[in-house]
Amino acid sequence: MGKRLNEEKRLQVVKEAIAGVKVGVLARMYDVHPETVRSWIRDHRDSISPEEIPAADEHVQELQRLQEVEQRYQKAVKVLGEKELEIEILRELLKKQNPAYLKNLK
C-alpha cells in the first residue's frame, strides 16, 4: 500500500474531499488506496468545521482541473475503443466472400 501520511496530511486530504475533489484523484495524488481515503473521511468529517474547508484556492482548483482532465481522458479512451471496434468489424465484413449486406441490396 502507499506511504503512511501523518495526521495533518490526512486531515488535509479529508478537507480536499469535502471541498469536492474526488476520492480517486486524492488517492492517486497522495499514493494511498481509495478505501483508505474513504476511511479517513468517515473518521474525520465530523471534526472539520465549515471554516476549515478549503475555498477555491489554487491547490483545490488544480485538483478539480485534474479531475476534469481525467474525465475527458476516460471519455476519449472509451470513444477511441469503440471506434477501433467498429473498424475491426468493418474489416472483417470486407474479408467475407458473400457479405450479407450486399444480398440485402439486390
TrEMBL record:
Q: Does the UniProt entry include the keyword Coiled coil?
A: yes
User: What keyword terms does UniProt attach to this protein?
Assistant: Coiled coil
Q: Which GO terms describe its biological process?
A: DNA transposition
Q: Does the keyword Cell membrane apply?
A: no
- Coiled-coil segments: 56-86
According to the lineage, what is the superkingdom?
A: Bacteria
Q: What is this protein called?
A: Transposase
Q: Which organism is it from?
A: Paenibacillus apis
